[in-house]
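= Protein in question =
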Amino acid sequence: MKKLNKLSIVGYGAGDAANNLAFTTATMFLLVYYTDVAGISAAAAGTLLLVVRLFDAFADVFAGRIVDRTFSKRFGKFRPFIMFGSIPLLLLSVATFSVPQLGESGTLLYAYVTYAALGLAYSLVNIPYGSLAGAMTQDPGERAKLGSARMVGALLVGSSLGIFVAPLIKPGADLQATFTTITLIFVVIGAALYFFTALTAKERVHRDVPKVTFKQSVDTLKTNKPLLMLCLSSFFFLSGYLALTSVQLYYLRDVLGRLDLYPVLSIIQLALTFVLAAFMPRLVRSIGKKSVYIYSSFITVAGGVIIFFAPAGQIWIGFSGLVISLVGVLAVNIVVWALEADTVEYGEWKTGVRTEGITYALFSFTRKSGQAVGGALAAYALALGGYKSGAAQTAEALFGIQVAAGAIPAVLTILAVLVMSKYKLTDAKHAEILSEIRARRTNPAAAGGPADANGGTVAPKPLASNSN
């Protein structure tokens, strides 16, 4: 199996750097922007995040169907969306962080509309981008490299935001001018990164059906049990992770009283990303993706427990909890994309049709749902604790922040592990599936054809030991 060249791996990673100029900026700062700049209450902001991110989840399914129905002989199946959807996405990020004062109802309505539009634009770029990895290679080690490159790209942006932007979120600063300037700069940088991805990350995996019908998409999802298990586990994991991400700034600023540690955490995050990215392909080959996912999740749980129980005065205990949690989160986020790509082959093995778009869309749907729930839980924890913008926080408010940053992520990650323990699409099983798919292409009459004359699928003969 031909290896990916370094330029294509770097190019793929650049795409997620561009994605996160919009996505991570929103997950890190949108809640604090809404409460401290736009003047929206914590409870109203929590409901907004829940509603719009659930809308985003359905937007992912819509985008997945569009992707499956699209194919360009010149640019392939996925790159046109990256090329032509990037500029609208980046401009909508500017609009989302430019909420005018239109009265309580008008301000809230503007926030709903712009954030929902940003989510739809993000889906139309991110679903093709995420699907692209499965079309670039089928080798587990190479997919781990793409997952690592993706994580490096995302964390370069996330760390830069933590190092250079988070310290600016302090009382008395002109935060509106700060966010306007930053998001406008991101339009230029993001466009360059997206086009670099489109020019270097090429599709190489054979597909028998370039344009997938709705029936073929549904058939693939109905029979893909590993995908459903991965989706449910990711829902729990992302719910916990987004709860922590949404209040990480509050935790450092208000509980630990050390906002200056945000850049330090970001630098540590960046260093860990490079270490894990270099180490992860070897670890995947050694113990398998499922084991990496589960063991890394337990590390995240340990970090959450420390964050929750660390007294407010114990700065370095609380900070170490953040670092430990971060190690587990980074490792899971590297390997999860390779796991999703494996489920594409499982669906092709069951139905004879590759459906990267709808497969990735369903996976992203559950992740977006988790993000919606996690962000809302964090905001509600702030509201229940009595958080007041610009005021000295009460003990109850500090406890609410600790619940959101530590307890919620720990509990939800344990649920993610319980689901993942039942996941049966191991790396060995995936290798068997790939062998049978290749055999069908060599001799389709013997193994079952991919599609009938009417565009429906002809069920292929599965392996004797059927995987769940």
About this structure: The mean pLDDT is 83. The chain has one domain: 6-444. The CA atoms of residues 197 and 279 lie 24 Å apart.
